[in-house]
């Protein structure tokens, strides 16, 4: 990232500028102690006077009424609140006419902020009071009262909590009267500005101790800056929460959400008292102490995929470079670039009006289509299509520009979706709900309809990050979830915990391999689906190495091919290479090339590769390959069990025992019962010591009750125990246990099964000949 700074000297204020606010992406209002409100048009570079305020009105803060809520335009959007030193706030129209003035505080009103849907206004005063007002200016409540001035205030992401300053303290107060407030010492000097982002739920603060800090919503410190030369007078999040701006005396910084600085500029502005981002996040404006309004455009963004490197050199120009042959192209756009994404052989670029789709094989002829709503806040790509999020909804497009689907769910807020809460694969869309962060909605990417029975996936804790795997059939689609405890789960129909203390993760783009950073280890799960076939295999499929090279709090950006890209906390990129063999093994497994898979494992002589092959073979019911793989990793008991499965007379029994191997007892039972193999079902439960279920099935089907009782009796005798189960005592009274008869019955059942299997085989053979 880089900032291009513009100072429009056509018209400047004569006194310090106290506040600024964007009306559209190219129009800004500024207020100053010279009592003037100016309008700045960035398209025409014109500045005009909106209104000259009365001489005793000194403005402090300005905030425009929210333009849209849930994609619907607000009828009242053309007004703004203006706070002033005389203890009043004023509701003013776009023409500058003051519609209403309200006596709010004793002393200056230091801050005024609308909540996200415009239903409430909060003001903070020099008198230490915080008050909530209706949008028409009626007092609803006095939220807080303290002895020191409240210099800054911010709404929580759901407008249900308030963040405000109290000297050196930061305080989060819920609106519910009975809820407990959270407060902590945040700075060594008076705190001057705060901001709370609705997308990433992170808090910014700055103060007279010349530092800015990043906090989570529990008050935990995530980043603290080094000390500046002067107090840090302003901080502001970009709308998407990826970057923030910091203003001080003759200083403007652009920083990543984790705190490190992309760029430091030293414009001649005096102190920057207020910062505001345009709604599309491409432009920044600052209110300066010397009467200027400073404008900054975000450029020099960079995207990488395989051998391609793309840089936004100007607001409407991109530079493409292939690092392999040093070939280059220049991409020109009619309007300024707002968002871009490069993955899966395609570059997707959104401007204020259009979407451009480029193929990595042809940079000259993009596919272009118009956008309903210009401010695209997120682009997510999969191999076959991509997803756009804007103020009105979520849209899935093909790379040919065709609208495929528009998934929706009740209460969906598109303004707070980000890359951690949305994931896309070729057939599935996953979106974490904001109103209940334990809930993940799953949609069919091709229809936009909810998957399965329409019920969302519900985790037991709040979900922090989700990621769908990118390969394989839709029936095997898996979603990886990191929850609030930093536990990593892999989910198909039911959740299985894979690891603990995982801070960041990413799926490979061409194989279902997952990487993550857990505690002090960089870990690659070569075959995470092993948890569904054989949990004991999972630890043997891992590649682990020390993660100290990534420093504290790293973030995985992507995992493409054999290369993992990690962003360290200081902003630098670190690349880590992983073995190409697991991806090759996934490819062989997907195409049923089991002989090639065995050759690869023998060549590589890697235990983790053999473990992966064992899991893949069992998942595909390829018993011969699984037997070789388990033997290679020394799992003798499992080799014997696989051999016993091979000797079973019927296909249904084999399938059931493979399900048992993976721990799916209920599915195994259902398979056997459906095939009419009642005795085999009962025997499975006897072998697992599920005595109650075995007796229940025997009684229900009126067969082999004596078999169950005999095995139960033998079990108790082996352990010198007496029967205490009332059901077994009840049936034992009327049933005589004769081991010879039982053995004969068992032999008869096995003969029946063999005959049935032989008949089925003959029938299928005859059918195939016909």
Automatic annotation (TrEMBL):
Residues 609-755 form the IFT80/172/WDR35 TPR domain. SMART domains: WD40 (SM00320). It is found in: Cell projection, Cilium. GO terms for cellular component: centrosome; cilium; intraciliary transport particle B. Residues 1-19 form the signal peptide. It holds the Pfam family WD40. Gene3D superfamilies: 1.25.40.470, YVTN repeat-like/Quinoprotein amine dehydrogenase. InterPro entries: Beta-prop_IFT80_2nd, TPR_IFT80_172_dom, WD40/YVTN_repeat-like_dom_sf, WD40_repeat_dom_sf, WD40_rpt. WD repeats lie at residues 102-134, 184-216. This is Intraflagellar transport 80 homolog (Chlamydomonas). It comes from Oncorhynchus kisutch.
